[in-house]
Amino acid sequence: MANCEYDIAKLSSPSGHTLLDARHLIEVRETLGKGLGIFSREKIPRGTRIVAESPLLKATAVSSHVVNVQAAFNNLPPPKQRAYLSLHGHASETLKKENDWESLPDLNRRVLAIYFANHWGRDVFWIASRFNHSCIPNIHNAYNPTIQKETFHSIRDIEPDEELTVSYVSGMCVRAERQAQLNKWGFQCKCPACQDTPDGNKIEQQLTRLAMLRQELEMAAPVSLPSKKNLDTHRKMAALMHSTGLVGKYLNNCYLDAALCSAIMGNVQMAMLWTEKEVEVDGYCLGQDHPDYQKEVGVLRQLRSAAKSKKPFHYTHIKWVLDWDEGPD
Ligand SMILES: [Zn+2]
Hints:
Elements: E1 26-30, E2 36-40, E3 49-53, E4 57-58, E5 60-61, E6 67-68, H1 69-74, H2 78-85, H3 93-98, H4 106-118, E7 123-124, E8 132-133, E9 139-144, E10 149-154, E11 163-166, H5 175-182, H6 198-219, H7 228-244, H8 249-264, H9 268-286, H10 291-308
Parallel strand pairs: 8-11
Antiparallel strand pairs: 1-2, 2-11, 3-10, 4-7, 5-6, 9-10
Helix pairs in contact: 6-7, 7-8, 8-9, 9-10
The structure holds zinc ion.
């Protein structure tokens, strides 16, 4: 490809290296049965910002549910169009039904199939589109408004030659539900949690338990309801997340719930300890320049000061980073 910026083979070359991320630590390779994937070239420590990128294509919103992908593609300059067309596409039966597939010209079909196989929100990314799925991913993605880019961080240490994966599945759910969600990408998940082996089934048992605990909490809404039982459930969930390797945003949310629960119960020391854990997870998932991380550090500072103070503690003394800053219902 003439334009070096969109030459995936040059990811690791000095010209591909930017100060914003560590893409020189990865390379795109053929996987066993999953097409291309992203692999580590060397050991990558937890919390490394592996990729920070702007969208290659941003679909135009026609309404809240409908986007115009073709118009967005037509507006791209030729090097970006060529880069876009080199991505993998998959046309699910639903996509075909919704788009009068047989009547569409080949190029339109390709543009749509690539979009629906690769989009995050309304965006398609050049490098990040190559991250394959795992139900136990080692990468977390989030939009960072400070640098105005989508970021992809390692959430645990990654060994050389290991594949880097994100989760395409939303919510904590069991194997059959995850696979049902993955069907639109047209593949069968073979991640460690989806293998019908003693090890795979052991992980799946823990994930099933996690999904059940989550459901129990939701039924006892609000999640932060201050009770010893709820706090105990958060603790069990955190332990299960650690043992399965689900150590990204779910773990962060679990720590936040536990911190709130403790604070509402009046235990500032416990709230502080849970928040310390939450800040740690946010740090490696988002990076320290992310506004959410900085807000959480602010909460931790307030809790530390409240813990030192001799005054009686009430959770409303803390300015939490929540939708319900006024307190729970
Ligand atoms: Zn899986």
